[in-house]
């Protein structure tokens, strides 16, 4: 059970990049919602850091604006916000200057003196990755009354831009901190429905016996977004869909679908099984890259009656950019459980619908007994785990349609979060920040996991970066991506699964 306020140790959060987008949209709302739900420690301080000129009060006003816009709990209650924000201070500072860390050391020392017990200090690096090394080096030198092991460091993505840079960053972090102090965040692992994959698979006796190549025909993981790159052109153009979404979020979801049962819910046991999957995914040679990995880039078009830019017209993007805004892959996992079961994954921006969904298609019945007219709507059994926006698990089975004739129809057996649980689920960052406070690394990436994911993708990165003459853009805004992605799966006789948009329930 998660500890409530009076059981939590005194904690100091330092947010490097405290004036940035992530802090305003996700981190502060997450900490505030934890506070509302009684999970923040009785004694805590949040130190926002940035170069922008604010004092404590003007900084809090900016945070309150963000909170009112983005928090799942809506507009803040003035009294609650007053209570929460009395624990926030702003440190105007440059992350590359030693003085910043002297000031931080003083703040920590002051708290340690006031509070009954020396604080756990969580440094959240919500800054561009070029700052990760300098900040890590400096914070590792901060003197703390409670000892250095009371410090934890949370590293945002991207963790490296290839295998070499990820290794360099791991080496540096591991030379400064113990692995148990390093929290590499992947917010998909904090999503309620993603966590539920483990409960669904390993808390039910029903599914594990059929969760293998004998019963499953293929798996799809599809993470589509209707938004473009918004104002993140500068970052995104040097990244692309593979680095932004596939290397981290999608591969981690794939690991949860494909992993072997861990012997316990201990962080390292779970992470060992996840990394096993990454190691077992079949590597691509140059030929396999061509046949199993495709990419695309969006053109302009119309979305909801509004004209939108093509990727190359977006702010901060090179007008001749070959950066992919879409990618799709076919993977195989070389182990006993998954031999020859294809895993299709795709992700893209400016697609028709925002939807993150896992579809597990089971093999067909061994012998059809129903006449063909009864089976016109035949659909092999399928398990659909919808991560967002709908949060549900649907088991599609065949059933008899009511009537005098034997006509079969696919129907869904549904577990829907909205209908089952009246209380809203916590946001991913709430779960992950609380885990970081409690020292639970289960939902964070270990160094070897990040490296294994990069290692798997390096042949694709090398191949793609070597081929510059691309037929981009190759899909219009508000579409399902490029035709080559359809071909990738259609040549095996399948189609991408798309989640039907949930219709509003009719009130009687
Ligand atoms: N925004 C998002 O939705 C997501 C972001 N991320 C990751 O989170 C991190 C932050 O992203 P985001 O908030 O969007 O970025 P922003 O560009 O909005 O913010 C960057 C932050 O870095 C600070 N900064 C820049 N230079 C310095 C410096 N020399 N010294 C001190 N502070 C500095 C800025 O503060 P100031 O200008 O005041 O100095 C600002 O607070 C990145 O690693 C990103 O990849 C990951 C997933 C989603
Ligand atoms: O990490 C990222 O994730 C978001 C998508 O996250 P979601 O929780 O809204 O599904 C993506 O838009 C962004 O490009 C990427 O950096």
UniProtKB/TrEMBL annotation:
Highest taxon of the lineage: Bacteria
The enzyme's E.C. designation: 1.1.1.49
Residue ranges of domain Glucose-6-phosphate dehydrogenase NAD-binding in the record: 15-196
InterPro entries per record: G6P_DH, G6P_DH_AS, G6P_DH_C, G6P_DH_NAD-bd, NAD(P)-bd_dom_sf
Pathway annotation from the record: Carbohydrate degradation; pentose phosphate pathway; D-ribulose 5-phosphate from D-glucose 6-phosphate (oxidative stage): step 1/3
Signal peptide boundaries: none
One record GO biological process: pentose-phosphate shunt, oxidative branch
PROSITE patterns found in the cross-reference section: G6P_DEHYDROGENASE
Pfam families according to UniProt: G6PD_C, G6PD_N
Alphabetically ordered keywords of this record: Carbohydrate metabolism, Glucose metabolism, NADP, Oxidoreductase
Binding site for substrate: 187, 191, 225, 244, 349, 354
Any one GO MF annotation of this record: NADP binding
GO cellular component: cytosol
Glucose-6-phosphate dehydrogenase C-terminal domain location: 198-496
Residues reported in the UniProt entry to bind NADP(+): 51, 157
Keyword NADP: yes
Recorded family membership: Belongs to the glucose-6-phosphate dehydrogenase family.
PANTHER family: GLUCOSE-6-PHOSPHATE 1-DEHYDROGENASE, GLUCOSE-6-PHOSPHATE 1-DEHYDROGENASE G6PD
Name this polypeptide is given: Glucose-6-phosphate 1-dehydrogenase
Organism in which the protein naturally occurs: Pseudopedobacter saltans (strain ATCC 51119 / DSM 12145 / JCM 21818 / CCUG 39354 / LMG 10337 / NBRC 100064 / NCIMB 13643)
Lineage: Bacteria, Pseudomonadati, Bacteroidota, Sphingobacteriia, Sphingobacteriales
Gene: zwf
């Amino acid at each position: 059970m998660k500890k409530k306020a009076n059981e939590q140790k005194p904690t100091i959060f330092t947010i490097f990049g405290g004036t940035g987008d992530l802090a305003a949209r996700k981190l502060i709302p997450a900490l505030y919602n934890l506070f509302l739900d009684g999970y923040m420690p009785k004694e805590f301080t949040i130190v926002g850091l940035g170069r922008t000129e604010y004092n404590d009060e003007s900084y809090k006003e900016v945070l309150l604006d963000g909170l009112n816009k983005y928090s799942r709990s809506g507009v803040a209650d003035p009294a609650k916000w007053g209570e929460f924000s009395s624990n926030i201070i702003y440190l105007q500072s440059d992350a590359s200057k030693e003085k910043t860390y002297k000031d931080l050391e003083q703040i920590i020392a002051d708290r340690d003196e006031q509070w009954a017990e020396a604080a756990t200090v969580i440094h959240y690096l919500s800054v561009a990755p070029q700052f990760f090394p300098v900040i890590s080096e400096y914070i590792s030198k901060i003197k703390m009354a409670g000892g250095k092991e009371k410090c934890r460091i949370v590293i945002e993505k991207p963790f490296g831009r290839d295998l070499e840079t990820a290794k360099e960053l791991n080496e540096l972090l591991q030379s400064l901190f113990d692995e148990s102090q390093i929290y590499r965040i992947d917010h998909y692992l904090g999503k309620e429905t993603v966590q539920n994959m483990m409960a669904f698979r390993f808390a039910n006796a029903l599914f594990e016996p059929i969760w293998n190549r004998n019963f499953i025909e293929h798996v799809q993981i599809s993470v589509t977004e209707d938004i473009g790159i918004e104002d993140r052109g500068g970052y995104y153009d040097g990244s692309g869909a593979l680095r932004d979404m596939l290397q981290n979020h999608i591969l981690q979801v794939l690991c949860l679908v494909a992993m072997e049962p861990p012997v316990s819910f201990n962080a390292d046991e779970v992470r060992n099984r996840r990394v096993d999957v990454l190691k077992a995914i079949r590597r691509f040679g140059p030929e396999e890259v061509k046949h199993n990995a495709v990419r695309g880039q969006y053109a302009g078009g119309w979305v909801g009656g509004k004209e939108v830019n093509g990727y190359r017209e977006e702010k901060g993007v090179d007008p001749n950019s070959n950066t992919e805004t879409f990618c799709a892959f076919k993977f195989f996992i070389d182990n006993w459980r998954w031999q020859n079961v294809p895993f299709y994954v795709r992700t893209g921006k400016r697609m028709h619908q925002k939807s993150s969904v896992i579809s597990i298609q089971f093999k067909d019945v061994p012998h059809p007994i129903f006449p063909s007219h009864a089976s016109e709507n035949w659909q092999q059994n399928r398990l659909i785990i919808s991560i967002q926006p709908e949060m549900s698990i649907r088991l599609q089975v065949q059933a008899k349609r009511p009537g005098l004739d034997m006509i079969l129809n696919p129907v869904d057996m549904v577990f829907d979060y909205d209908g089952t649980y009246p209380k809203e689920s916590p946001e991913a960052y709430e779960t992950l920040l609380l885990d970081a406070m409690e020292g639970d690394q289960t939902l964070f990436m270990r160094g070897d996991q990040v490296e294994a994911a990069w290692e798997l993708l390096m042949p694709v990165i090398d191949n793609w970066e070597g081929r510059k003459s691309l037929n981009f853009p190759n899909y219009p805004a508000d579409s399902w991506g490029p035709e080559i992605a359809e071909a990738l799966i259609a040549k095996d006789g399948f189609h991408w699964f798309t989640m039907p948009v949930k219709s509003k329930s009719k009130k009687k």
